[in-house]
């Protein structure tokens, strides 16, 4: 049975969070000389001489309203990668504990495991890129603290069957982390709607994909209030800068434009799904619920180089187990997709 205190590192439970100047004073004042800021102003613009809100209260309240959550269920990070790294720091003892992920998948799970000296256990997805649940449960050890599941999966693009995720949540006493970076392009509810059912569930989302804010580095984690409180406890005090907070608040007022962009990207994705198989160089286009396609091609390395010569950059994923001979192609604009199609059609 899941018990959060049983998996959190003892030193994390005991430690005190950093107390910033903005934590120690709450209220109105006309003179701020408590944080060693530059009171003459900022060369970057008005207000940037001051430290940002370390708790991102306004931003969390707006996200909570859109997502149907409490602000206390939301952690904001410098990209989802920060949340991934902090989850390792929160529960995994370096040199003692382990994690498990499903290959092929997003590479930062492995990078964070290696950085934090956590043993990396991996299970290969099935040929249709689903979870072999029984094999995963056989691989779970007493030291396994985290299972990472990317859904829709990167680089394959498909959603993971919900029944598989439910089984792992029901039978694993550590944290199951569902990375939903691409969920806005899928016609299914987020796992954030099921947080009340599973105290060991953590969901990752990002502003980098559908929201078009990759350059601002803003990621989200949704979980129980207890898990979020621990993540907030161990994060750097000012991990989301003021410019990012301001621009994200503006973006969150444009949900109609977001829906329009998602619709256009999905339409272009489906156009590519229909068109690419007609090309001689294309052997298979895998189903996708993301903003990219995994495409099996004839001579992936040569086609990749050829596209570079045409000024078109895709991602060569053919070295990954299960993705042999495959390129990962992001959905571009109408014009970009036409250029891609024409380039591949001319490939000999």
If you had to describe this structure to a student in words, what would you say it looks like?
It is an enzyme of class 2 (transferase). Pathway: Amino-acid biosynthesis; L-histidine biosynthesis; L-histidine from 5-phospho-alpha-D-ribose 1-diphosphate: step 7/9; Lipid metabolism. Its cofactor is pyridoxal 5'-phosphate. It is globular and about 70 Å long. It has 13 helices and 11 strands. The longest helix has 21 residues, at 255-275. Helix 5 (80-91) packs across helix 6. Helix content is 36%, strand content 16%. The termini are far apart. It has helices at residues 4-7, 10-14, 21-24, 57-67, 80-91, 108-115, 133-139, 162-171, 225-234, 242-251, 255-275, 300-309, 334-345, and strands spanning 74-77, 98-103, 119-124, 144-150, 175-179, 201-206, 219-222, 282-285, 292-297, 315-316, 326-330. It has a 7-stranded mixed beta sheet with strand order 1-7-6-5-4-2-3, sandwiched between helices. It folds into 2 domains: 4-19 and 51-253, 3-Layer(aba) Sandwich (Aspartate Aminotransferase, domain 2); 256-345, Aspartate Aminotransferase, domain 1, CATH 3.90.1150. Helix 8 (162-171) links the parallel strand 4 (144-150) and strand 5. The chain is of the alpha/beta class.
């Amino acid at each position: 049975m899941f018990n959060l205190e049983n998996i959190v590192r003892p030193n994390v439970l005991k430690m005190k969070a950093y107390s910033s100047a903005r934590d120690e004073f709450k209220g109105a004042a006309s003179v701020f000389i408590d944080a060693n800021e530059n009171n003459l102003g900022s060369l970057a613009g008005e207000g940037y001489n001051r430290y940002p809100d370390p708790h991102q209260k306004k931003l969390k309240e707006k996200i909570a309203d859109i997502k149907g959550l409490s602000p206390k269920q939301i952690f904001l990070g410098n990209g989802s990668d920060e949340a991934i790294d902090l989850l390792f720091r929160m529960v995994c003892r370096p040199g003692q504990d382990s994690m498990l992920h499903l290959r092929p998948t997003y590479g930062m799970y492995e990078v964070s495991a290696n950085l934090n000296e956590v043993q990396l256990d991996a299970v290969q997805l099935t040929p249709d890129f689903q979870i072999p649940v029984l094999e995963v449960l056989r691989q779970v050890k007493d030291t396994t603290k985290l299972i990472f599941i990317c859904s829709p999966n990167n680089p394959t693009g498909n959603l993971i069957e919900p029944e598989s995720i439910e089984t792992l949540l029901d039978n694993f006493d550590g944290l199951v982390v569902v990375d939903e970076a691409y969920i806005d392009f899928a016609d299914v509810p987020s796992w954030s709607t099921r947080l009340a059912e599973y105290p060991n569930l953590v969901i990752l989302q990002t502003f980098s994909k559908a929201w078009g804010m990759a350059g601002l580095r803003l990621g989200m984690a949704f979980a129980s209030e207890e898990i979020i409180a621990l993540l907030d406890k161990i994060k750097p005090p000012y991990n989301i800068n003021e410019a990012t907070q301001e621009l994200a608040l503006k973006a969150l007022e444009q949900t109609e434009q977001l829906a329009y962009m998602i619709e256009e990207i999905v339409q272009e994705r489906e156009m590519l799904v229909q068109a690419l198989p007609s090309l001689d160089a294309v052997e298979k286009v895998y189903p996708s619920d993301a903003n990219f396609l995994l495409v099996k091609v004839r001579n992936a390395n040569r086609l990749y180089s050829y596209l570079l010569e045409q000024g078109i950059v895709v991602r060569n994923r053919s070295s990954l187990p299960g993705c042999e001979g495959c390129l990962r192609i992001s959905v571009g604009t109408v014009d970009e997709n036409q250029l891609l199609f024409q380039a591949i059609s001319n490939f000999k």
